[in-house]
């Protein structure tokens, strides 16, 4: 019986993955929109990109003193700050920011450091970036979204709360006609972290009546997916 239950659970998990992949594909969303530096790219890095990835503060300071380009780009448009963010090199992030590196710059897929940290569920790096003056308000990604929408999609509730506190736009509508509230539902699994994400957005007074392109409200979308707890949360907040 235990084996049968395990097989059934595995089958349901696999089925959900297939359905979600189909949904993402139909919406034009790639499975991994952000691209971290590959091992081959890291091995080829020189100068500030190499120092940022390694967290080599002494070399960063030396290169800054030699007037190295703080916002130089690799083949994917990543700056040293992007690389340090992917690598979670906090001392490097501080050194680059102190030297004047652009905190708001976007790489080729139009992600900034804040969105990179948010998608990675990297609360510590996100907190650091925000403390250094990075903005939670930028429009990012090829979908004209925000870090908040990306984090809500993934159910990164701790990140969502920090972005809200930093002034992220609650009701931004991306070019798929989805808000953070909608993405927490339609791209979520209805589970604990997506529920916590939705609660954070409700508590922050996000607009619960903004509908998707077909006119479906968050409450209708949650009902359609059978997400009972989300339905109760939305109804309790007065959603229709």
TrEMBL record:
Keyword terms, alphabetized: ANK repeat, Repeat
Species: Ramlibacter rhizophilus
Identify this protein by name.
Ankyrin repeat domain-containing protein
InterPro entries of this UniProt entry? Ank_Repeat/CDKN_Inhibitor, Ankyrin_rpt, Ankyrin_rpt-contain_sf
Where, in residue numbers, are the ANK repeats?
43-75, 76-108, 143-175, 214-240
Q: Which domain of life is it from?
A: Bacteria
| PANTHER family from the UniProt entry | ANK_REP_REGION DOMAIN-CONTAINING PROTEIN
User: Known SUPFAM superfamilies for this protein?
Assistant: Ankyrin repeat
The protein's matches in Gene3D superfamilies, at most eight in alphabetical order, are given as: Ankyrin repeat-containing domain (1.25.40.20)
Repeat keyword on record: yes
């Amino acid at each position: 019986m235990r084996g049968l239950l395990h097989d059934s659970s595995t089958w349901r998990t696999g089925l959900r993955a297939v359905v979600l992949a189909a949904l993402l594909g139909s919406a034009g969303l790639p499975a991994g929109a952000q691209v971290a530096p590959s091992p081959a790219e890291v091995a080829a890095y020189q100068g500030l990109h190499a120092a940022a990835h390694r967290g080599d503060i002494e070399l960063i300071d030396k290169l800054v003193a030699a007037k190295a380009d703080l916002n130089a780009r690799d083949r994917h448009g990543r700056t040293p700050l992007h690389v340090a963010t992917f690598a979670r090199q906090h001392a490097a992030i501080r050194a680059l920011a102190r030297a004047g590196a652009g905190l708001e710059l976007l790489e080729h897929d139009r992600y900034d450091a804040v969105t990179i940290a948010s998608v990675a569920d990297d609360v510590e790096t996100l907190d650091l970036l925000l403390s250094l003056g990075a903005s939670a308000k930028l429009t990012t990604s090829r979908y004209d979204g925000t870090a908040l929408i990306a984090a809500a999609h993934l159910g990164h509730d701790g990140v969502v709360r920090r972005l809200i506190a930093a002034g992220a736009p609650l009701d931004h509508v991306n070019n798929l006609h989805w808000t953070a509230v909608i993405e927490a539902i339609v791209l979520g699994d209805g589970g604990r972290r997506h529920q916590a994400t939705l609660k954070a957005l409700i508590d922050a007074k996000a607009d619960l009546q903004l509908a998707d392109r077909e006119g479906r409200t968050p409450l209708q979308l949650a009902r359609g997916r059978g997400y009972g707890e989300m339905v109760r949360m939305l109804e309790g907040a007065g959603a229709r």
